[in-house]
Specification:
Layout: E1 3-7, H1 10-22, H2 26-29, H3 39-44, H4 49-58, E2 67-71, H5 98-106, E3 111-112, E4 123-126, E5 144-147, E6 159-166, E7 174-178, H6 179-184, H7 188-194, E8 199-200, E9 217-220, E10 223-226, E11 233-234, H8 237-253, E12 255-257, E13 264-268, E14 272-276, E15 289-295
Parallel strand pairs: 1-2
Antiparallel strand pairs: 2-13, 3-15, 4-15, 5-14, 6-13, 6-15, 7-12, 7-14, 8-11, 9-10
C-alpha cells in the first residue's frame, strides 16, 4: 500500500505550535471558519519543509501517495474528557488543535462540510456515542466497514484528515487499503464492469428498493475516482462477481495502523478506502477521540 510516514522533530512541532499561537482566536481557527481567512496562506509557507514536501506528494494525483501519517504533534495540555454526548459546535468549543488541521488542509485544498453532518462544521469531533455503538457511522464501537468517505456524492471530498486527540485505553486500529493496486491488476472485462452503472445500495423499506445504480470507477474533474462501501451490491451476476473479488482483495491487502495522540492521517479519498476495528468503550472520559476535516478539489 502507498503510505508515507513522517515524525515531527521537537523543533518542527514547536514551529507549528508557534504559527498556531499567533492565530489562536476562535474566529480564525474555529470549526466553521477554518478556510475563510486569507492569512492562512501566509502561515502555511512557514510550515516545516518536510511537512510541505510530504503533502505535495499526496497531491500528485494518480502517481501520488495514498496516505500520509504525520506523528509528533503535541496535543495541548488540559484536553477535556472525551465527550459522551453530541458535540456542541459553538464559539469557545475549540480544544486547541483546530489550527493544525486548518494549516494542513490549506496545503491540500478547500475545507468542505455537509449541512447534514455535524451541523455543517468543517472540523468534526468523532468519539463513541452510547446510542450509536452498533450503527455504521464514525460514532460506533463495532467494526466500521471499509468505505470511501461520503461515497458517490457529487462533492465527495478529495482528501480526508484525521487527527487523534486521545487514543483510548485499548488499541484501536484504522484500516487502510489502496484500491488502485487492486483495480489496476484486474482483467479488462472486470474493469469495464467497474466503470458501468451496476452498483447500488439497498433501501430499507417494505418494497425492497435500491438506490440508483452507479459505477465504482469514474472520472471527476479529470481525476480518476474509485467509490466504494462494503454495503454496496451488484445489480446483476457480472457486477456481483466483480464486487465479491474486490471485497476479497481489500480484505487481503488492507493494512492496520494505530493512531496515537498527536498523529495526523491524511487519506487520498479518490483511491483509498478506510475503516476501523471494533473496541469496547468506557464512556468515562478516556475513550478514543479524533477530529476530522474533509478537503475538496482545488479545481
Amino acid at each position: 500500500m502507498s503510505l508515507n510516514c513522517l515524525t515531527l522533530t521537537d523543533a518542527e512541532s514547536a514551529t507549528i505550535q508557534a504559527i498556531i499561537g499567533k492565530k489562536s482566536s476562535p474566529a480564525f481557527f474555529g470549526a466553521r471558519s477554518c478556510d475563510r481567512m486569507p492569512e492562512l496562506d501566509n502561515c502555511v509557507e512557514a510550515l516545516p519543509t518536510r511537512v510541505r514536501e510530504a503533502i505535495a506528494e499526496i497531491r500528485m494525483g494518480e502517481s501520488g501517495t495514498g496516505a500520509l501519517m504525520i506523528a509528533g504533534f503535541r496535543i495541548p495540555h488540559g484536553l477535556p474528557d472525551t465527550p459522551t454526548g453530541i458535540y456542541e459546535y459553538i464559539d469557545g468549543s475549540e480544544v486547541g488543535t483546530e489550527g493544525y488541521l486548518c494549516l494542513l488542509s490549506r496545503l491540500l485544498g478547500p475545507a468542505i462540510s455537509f449541512e447534514d453532518w455535524h451541523g455543517g462544521a468543517k472540523i468534526q469531533n468523532l468519539y463513541p456515542l452510547p446510542d450509536r455503538r452498533n450503527v455504521q457511522c464514525a460514532a460506533n464501537c463495532v467494526y466500521l466497514e471499509m468505505h470511501t468517505e461520503t461515497a458517490f456524492r457529487p462533492n465527495t471530498p478529495y482528501f480526508l484528515i484525521l487527527l487523534c486527540l486521545r487514543e483510548g485505553r485499548e488499541p484501536v486500529y484504522t484500516i487502510l487499503c489502496d484500491l488502485r493496486e487492486i483495480v489496476n491488476a484486474m482483467a479488462p472485462e472486470a474493469k469495464k464492469v467497474l466503470g458501468s452503472p451496476s452498483f447500488c445500495f439497498a433501501i430499507k423499506d417494505d418494497h425492497g428498493g435500491r438506490t440508483e445504480p452507479k459505477p465504482i470507477e469514474t472520472l471527476h474533474s479529470g481525476h480518476r475516482r474509485l467509490n466504494y462501501a462494503e454495503a454496496l451490491m451488484g445489480i446483476d451476476e457480472p457486477s456481483r462477481e466483480v464486487l465479491a473479488e474486490l471485497r476479497h482483495q481489500i480484505q487481503k491487502k488492507a493494512r492496520l495502523l494505530q493512531l496515537k495522540a498527536g498523529d495526523a492521517m491524511i487519506i487520498n479519498n479518490l483511491y483509498m478506502v478506510h475503516g476501523r476495528t471494533a473496541f469496547e468503550p468506557r464512556f468515562d472520559g478516556t475513550d478514543r477521540w479524533l477530529q476530522r476535516l474533509l478537503v475538496g478539489s482545488n479545481a
